[in-house]
Amino acid sequence: MTDKIAPALTPEQWEQSATASFVSTLSSAALIALANAALPDGDPRKITWAMVDALLCVVQQDTDAQRWGPFDGEIEGAAGCQRLADALASYLPPRETL
């Protein structure tokens, strides 16, 4: 499997995310995470744990990278889906806070 991508925000940072002074110090990845969190539930653009779980289900069911063709050179086969799932998960708050 691939190396996990670190979450954009720590659990502590998610708790502090409502303060303006905190937001001004954040990285681009952290700002993406907060923007995603601000989208209303049901918005089709919102990244969710259900999306991540769906990708991981595909990875578990099909680990044959030869079965899938290259899409953009970065996302290919089960390993590519794993990387995509890891990237999306990095923008989400910890599951425990949901």
Explain this structure to me?
By secondary structure, the chain is an all-alpha fold. It has one domain. It is built from 5 helices and no strands. α4 runs antiparallel to α5. The radius of gyration is 15 Å and the shape is elongated. It starts with 10 loop residues before the first helix and ends in a 9-residue tail after the last helix. The model has no long low-confidence stretch (mean pLDDT 80).
* Amino- and carboxy-terminal Cα gap: 26 Å
The topology string of helices and strands comes to HHHHH
* Major pleated sheet: none
| Number of discrete domains | 1
User: What amount of the residues lies in strands?
Assistant: under 5%
Number of strands: 0
State the low-pLDDT regions, or none. Answer: none
Radius of gyration: 15 Å
Q: Give the overall pLDDT as a whole number.
A: 80
Structural class: mainly alpha
Envelope shape: elongated
Q: What percentage of residues falls in helices of 4 or more residues? A: 40-55%
Helix count, DSSP H or I runs of 4 or more residues? 5
Short account of what is shown:
With 98 residues, this protein is an all-alpha fold.
Write the layout of secondary structure elements.
Elements: H1 11-16, H2 20-23, H3 28-38, H4 49-61, H5 77-89
Helix pairs in contact: 4-5
